[in-house]
Amino acid sequence: MKRDAIDLKTVNVFTLFRRYFIPTLLGMLSMSAVTAIDGIFVGHGVGSDGIAAINILIPVLMFFTGVGLMVGAGCSVVASIHLSRGKQNTARINVTQALFFVTIIAALLSFLMMIFPDDTAYLLGASEHLRPMVTDYLLWFVPSWIFQIWIAVSLFIIRLDGAPKLAMFCSLVTAVINVVLDWIFIFPFGWGVMGAALATSISIISGGIIAILYLLFFARRLRLYPLKWSVKSFRLFVRNIGYQCRIGSSALLGEATLAVLMFVGNQVFMHYLGDDGVGAFGIACYYIPFVFMVGNAVAQSAQPIISYNFGLGYRKRVTEAVRIALLTAVLCGVVVTVVFVACPDFLVGLFIDKDNVAARIAIEGFPYFAIGFVCFIFNLTAVGYYQSVERARPATWFALLRGFIFLIPSFLIMPHMLGVEGIWLALPLSEIMTTIAIIMFYYYRKMND
Length: 449
What we know:
Layout: H1 13-45, H2 48-84, H3 88-115, H4 117-123, H5 131-141, H6 145-160, H7 164-186, H8 192-218, H9 231-312, H10 315-342, H11 344-349, H12 357-369, H13 373-388, H14 392-405, H15 407-418, H16 420-424, H17 426-448
């Protein structure tokens, strides 16, 4: 497998960022496409009820991905700093421990959900009408989640190892397999949501195998390292994983923001507009991971540059990388917002017939929903910066603000003030307030330094 040679301490920062950003963005969008493609085929092959059923289960997938992003981000920062100081074996040990840890977590939780599918569906808010489709999707999708969490962690490591194009290829292969199998299983075979789940599982398993094979046999500096089994080694394992999770906790909270958005939004839309409202919101929730992944692509492209140079003490290069990342975030946010405001009919029509009740609700709501996208991407990038320089506390607080402290009250209060439009405006309000908090914190620290 071809590897890219990238010198993080001498190459021009803008050139470095560009070399990371383009393949990372394409890879991230491909990851989002896996779920969105399900929605498009299910919308046309099953209808808005199928979209609503899948959307009810997606918050759990967000949690799994969030755990992977938390451990992956923390592991990547720690490994990057060790590499900058010439401690390659220590970096490899941290990488191996991270993958071992997430495998245990994913296996345990997947097993519990497979045993109790109906209870899981009810816990996530499925109505009696939607429950059979939710459990059908769950039983065929959940077995792939170990591979999903492998992908989430491994892509961080593969990029840090100097192979961003391979990380992109891993994501693209997953998306292409999903497209082909989705069409076959839903239309010619007529397997409905079960077919969509099976197609996604096969595609995710394929991507996970590619990533793990690279780390086992082809990685340049971060090949997996044999772990020792002793009391001392276990203590070091717990210490290292705890530190990685602390650094990357804001990444979990960032993904948890999507889970909370979908879970609380499902409940609120169900309360005000019933299953059609959940279907409309489900279409929006197929798009929001694309926006999230754009922000993630910006943050993760800057992360190895920032962490490596931070470890070396090259402050000027760190500052330059942060400035480029934030400007890129704002530009991407503007582009995404324009698309959503200008083309809601087209975006919704990709999933279901535009004459559908759920489609009309979504078309009217998309322009309101898109108001917060610039702040959404900016906030993810800012949180990524604080992760990259081992400042876990502000990163965690900002993630909490946007995912819980501001978002949940916004969902509860805005519908009472503005009706249905208020539900769509809950996310923008939360993101805008978080951006204000980040800017205030930055200037406060600057004045007191």
